[in-house]
Amino acid sequence: MTKIRLMLVDDHEVVRLGMRAAFELEPDITIVGEASNGAEAIAKVGILDPQVILMDVRMEKINGIEACREIKNNASQIAILMITSFTDEEAITASILAGASGYLLKNVSRAELLKAIRAVASGQSLLDPTELKRTIARLTAQDKNLTSIGGDDLTEREREVIALIARGYTNKQIAEKLFVSEKTARNHVSHILEKLGLARRSEAAAFAVEHKIVPPRAWPDK
Q: What is the pTM of this model?
């Protein structure tokens, strides 16, 4: 039997111990390692080679969403399940745009958690594109400026930058991708947020998806 290689990422040791206890007796799951924050997860993922990562959303140093983006950029085959104690609409959207395969609450039952892990390990997604569209619509509706601004208001370079933001690229990665300095990339991001009347990168990512500048990872490419 080929076992699912599972990595646990949470900043609370007691939570990790509880998760480990929940999985250790499953014959088709093996825990390859743990991490206490996003930075540690990024550092260990290449060594541990997990098939599935169970990732806490809120952590110090580097949070789960940023870690998810970084890991998916370098190892797209890894399935990442985000797990948190809170229902956060923006975090759900940001997780989806970062490439997560699912988003669960920590009060989920053991049976449901095991089902989710096995599902994403087999290549399934627990994300509903229809719900994603609704979430994005609710986010964008919060800013009245978005009703009068479309993707055509951005320059070609700004469209390239916002597309990379939606794919989870950091300023450094955007700079490397577009062969510009990191300062120039940061300025582009600031101009985009100012032009669109947005406050956060996650809102810019949602804008890119809503205006079809870039498809989210949860949707198949056309």
A: 0.63
Cα four-point dihedral sign 106, 111, 116, 121: positive
51-114-91 Cα angle (round to 5): 75
As a whole number of Å, the end-to-end CA separation of the chain is: 36
Half-sphere exposure of 77 (CA within 13 A, CB side): 6
The set of residues, in sequence order, having a beta carbon less than 8 Å from that of 53 and lying 6+ positions away, is 6, 7, 9, 41, 45, 71, 78, 79, 80, 81
* 42 and 120 housed in the same domain: yes
* The length of the chain, given as a count of residues: 222
User: Under 8 Å CB-to-CB from 130, ≥6 apart: which residues?
Assistant: none
CATH number at residue 58: 3.40.50.2300
- Written as tens digits, the pLDDT of the chain (222 aa) is 789 999 999 999 998 998 898 898 899 999 999 999 999 999 999 999 999 999 998 887 788 988 998 899 889 899 999 998 776 666 777 787 788 988 888 888 899 999 999 999 998 888 656 655 665 565 555 444 444 455 567 888 898 899 888 777 788 888 888 888 889 999 999 999 888 888 888 788 878 877 777 644 444 443
Q: Which two tokens stand for residue 112?
A: 């449901």
Q: Identify the CA nearest to 16 among candidates 38, 35, 40, 39.
A: 35
Instruction: Clarify whether residues 8 and 89 are in a common domain.
Output: yes
